[in-house]
Structures are given as structure tokens and as C-alpha cells.
């Protein structure tokens, strides 16, 4: 649904995006992560035909972002950092204006606008001038605008950055339900918990280049190694030296806890539990210790700096 090959943007001598390749299938959420100035917004702008690439190509829903810019704009909903809001308008007028721009039938556009304003908690304020809106309110209205024409592709640049926790939750829930409705979404965020909740794929971009890209759990494994499991036992394990099945290594022995790195948990965990029991260690609990995306991200950036 979103495809880019060698996508590059140069501003004078400075290469902001450097040979980016992307392939996001329909219904997937790709989260773009990266330090400030890494090239995320510039990438999104090229994908929405706002900026013309210096080199390379991209297609969105089958349309070329350079040669078919008009079609691209009709199939994407965009939320970028600088949303131009028209201060003298109110929310109704603003969405009506965009409804006309998208060629929506007036009644349909009105119903859809009200539905979106209600969804994002703006219905009560819809007659107020936009100049009186807070940053978060503006952001929610921009998101309503991006969703107005029910586009199959959404490109969202930091959609929850200015929002209070309740509004951010509302927006995340909206993104989740859009994903289940088969929308394809590219999301830039610095909020790693948000990325973890919403991403199917993650691309980490640094200095204009994608340094890592993959399905969320694969990427974590790649960067942090196999998943760890922790056993809580009924007695102290200091000094315990039991034998472990093949493919298991002990990574922590402390108090009542043992932690293991396990190459093939599916097949090895039953043998591991049997061997603990054989050593008279009664297991109170045994569970996976999830890798966090934050640790994976920090590791990816650390490795890239080392290179
Ligand atoms: N119009 C422009 N002219 C010159 N340089 C630009 C322009 N737009 C962006 N840049 C530069 O390109 C680089 C990438 O910027 P971009 O906004 O894409 O980063 P980003 O990853 O979105 O950062 P952030 O996380 O801070 O939003 C930055 O160094 C920025 O200064």
C-alpha cells in the first residue's frame, strides 16, 4: 500500500532523507522512530506529495507521489506538525471547508464532521473560533480533518504530542480501530509506549537512513537477543548450581528469583521446569520478561553510533 525505493531528499548540500526503502502492506501500522532531526517528517511529507523527492520514488495506494500527486492527496489523510488552522473559522466551518475540498456531499460531510467532533470531545466547542483553541484541541481537529474523507492511508506525524492523557488515549483508540478497519498507517512518534501499542512494523531512522526495520517482536529479538523467562521459587537460590537443559543459560540468580535466556522456549521450557523440580526447587511462578521497545530503540541507536 505504501512503497518507497531509494527515497531521498536533499536541502542544498544537506541530505535530510537518504535512500529510504519502505514496504507497508494494507492494514499495517508502520511506526517511524528516530531522534530529532532524523528525517521522519521529511519522509512523511514526501509520501504525501507535499515535498518533491530529490531522488528515488514512492507509491501510495498505487499512485506515484510525484506524477500523481492529486490522486495521492485524495487517498491519504495527513496530520503533520504544522497544521495550518484558520483562526477565524470555527470547527464546523473548518471541516465543511475541507469536506468541499475533498468533494464530499454537504449533508454527508456535516454528519461525518459532527461524528468526528463528538469522537474527539470537541462537539461542545465546535462554534468557537479556532484561534481560541488550545494546542491539543487543534491537534484533535486536525486529526478529524485527516479522517473526514475516510482515506485508506493515514500519515500521522506525532498525533498525540500535545495531548492530555485522556485525549491521547482517545486518539490511540481511534488509530487502533482504524487499523482494524484495514487502514494503512504511518505514524511518527517519540512515545515508545504508544509505538509499542500500535505498531505492526517499526522503522528506526537516524541521520536520514533507516538503521533498523522489522516486525515489532522480531526487531526486539534482533537487538536484545532471545526472550528471557523468570522463575520465582519457594526458597532462596543463592549458590544454586543446578544443571540446565541445552539451549538455556542462567542470566540472573538473586533471592528467590532465577532468570534464563532460552533459545527455543516452546520446546525447552517443559524440560527446564522438570529440572528445577528435580532439584527440589518449587516454582511459584514462571513467566516471560518482555523486552521493551525502549531498550531495543536505545540499543539500535547505540549500535549505529558505534558504526
Ligand atoms: N525545508 C527545509 N530546509 C532545510 N532543511 C530542512 C528542511 N526541512 C527539514 N530540514 C532538515 O532536515 C532534517 C530532518 O528534519 P525532519 O523534520 O524530517 O526531522 P524529524 O525526524 O521529523 O525530527 P523531529 O523528531 O524533531 O520532528 C533536519 O536536520 C532539518 O533541519
Chain-wise SSE layout:
Layout: E1 2-11, E2 14-24, E3 29-33, H1 40-47, E4 55-60, E5 63-64, H2 69-75, E6 76-79, H3 91-101, H4 106-119, H5 135-147, E7 153-157, H6 165-180, E8 184-188, H7 192-198, E9 201-206, E10 209-215, H8 216-224, E11 228-233, E12 248-254, E13 257-262, H9 265-278, E14 283-289, H10 293-306
Parallel strand pairs: 3-8, 3-9, 6-7, 7-8
Antiparallel strand pairs: 1-2, 1-4, 4-5, 9-10, 11-13, 11-14, 12-13
Helix pairs in contact: 3-4, 8-10
Domain ABC transporter: 2-232
Pfam family, one: ABC_tran
Family: Belongs to the ABC transporter superfamily.
Give an overview in words.
This protein has 307 residues and is an alpha/beta fold. It folds into 2 domains: 2-221, P-loop containing nucleotide triphosphate hydrolases (Rossmann fold, 3-Layer(aba) Sandwich), CATH 3.40.50; 226-290, Alpha-Beta Plaits (2-Layer Sandwich), CATH 3.30.70.1560. The protein has helices spanning 40-47, 69-75, 91-101, 106-119, 135-147, 165-180, 192-198, 216-224, 265-278, 293-306; strands at 2-11, 14-24, 29-33, 55-60, 63-64, 76-79, 153-157, 184-188, 201-206, 209-215, 228-233, 248-254, 257-262, 283-289. Helix 3 (91-101) packs across helix 4 (106-119) and helix 8 packs across helix 10. The chain is elongated and about 75 Å long. The model has no long low-confidence stretch (mean pLDDT 91). Bound molecules: adenosine-5'-triphosphate (ATP). Adenosine-5'-triphosphate is lined by residues 11, 14, 16, 34, 36-42.
What's the short story on this structure?
This protein has helices spanning 40-47, 69-75, 91-101, 106-119, 135-147, 165-180, 192-198, 216-224, 265-278, 293-306; strands at residues 2-11, 14-24, 29-33, 55-60, 63-64, 76-79, 153-157, 184-188, 201-206, 209-215, 228-233, 248-254, 257-262, 283-289.
Amino acid at each position: 500500500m505504501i512503497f518507497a525505493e531509494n527515497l531521498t531528499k536533499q536541502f542544498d548540500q544537506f541530505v535530510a532523507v537518504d535512500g529510504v526503502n519502505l514496504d507497508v502492506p494494507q492494514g499495517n501500522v508502520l511506526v517511524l522512530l528516530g531522534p530529532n532531526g532524523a528525517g521522519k517528517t521529511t519522509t512523511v511529507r514526501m509520501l504525501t506529495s507535499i515535498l518533491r523527492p530529490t531522488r528515488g520514488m514512492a507509491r501510495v495506494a498505487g499512485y506515484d507521489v510525484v506524477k500523481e500527486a492529486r490522486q495521492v492527496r485524495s487517498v491519504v489523510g495527513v496530520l503533520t506538525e504544522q497544521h495550518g488552522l484558520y483562526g477565524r473559522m470555527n470547527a464546523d466551518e473548518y471541516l465543511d471547508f475541507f469536506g468541499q475540498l475533498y468533494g464530499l456531499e454537504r449533508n454527508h460531510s456535516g454528519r461525518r464532521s459532527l461524528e468526528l467532533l463528538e469522537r474527539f470531545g470537541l462537539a461542545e466547542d465546535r462554534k468557537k473560533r479556532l484561534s481560541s483553541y488550545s494546542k491539543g484541541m487543534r491537534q484533535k481537529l486536525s486529526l478529524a480533518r485527516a479522517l473526514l474523507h475516510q482515506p485508506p492511508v493515514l500519515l500521522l506525524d506525532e498525533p498525540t504530542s500535545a495531548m492530555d492523557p485522556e485525549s491521547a488515549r482517545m486518539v490511540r483508540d481511534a488509530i487502533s480501530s482504524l487499523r482494524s478497519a484495514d487502514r494503512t498507517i504511518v505514524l511518527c512518534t517519540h512515545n515508545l509506549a504508544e509505538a509499542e501499542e500500535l505498531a505492526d512494523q517499526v522503522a528506526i531512522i537516524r541521520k536520514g537512513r533507516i538503521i533498523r526495520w522489522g516486525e515489532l517482536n522480531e526487531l526486539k529479538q534482533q537487538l536484545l537477543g532471545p526472550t528471557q523467562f523468570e522463575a520465582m521459587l519457594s526458597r532462596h537460590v543463592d549458590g544454586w548450581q543446578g544443571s540446565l537443559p541445552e539451549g538455556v543459560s542462567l542470566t540472573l540468580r538473586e533471592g528467590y528469583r532465577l532468570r534464563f535466556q532460552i533459545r527455543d522456549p516452546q520446546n525447552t521450557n517443559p524440560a527446564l521446569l522438570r529440572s528445577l523440580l528435580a532439584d527440589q526447587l518449587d516454582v511459584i511462578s514462571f513467566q516471560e520478561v518482555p523486552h521493551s521497545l525502549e531498550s531495543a530503540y536505545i540499543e539500535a541507536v547505540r549500535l549505529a553510533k558505534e558504526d
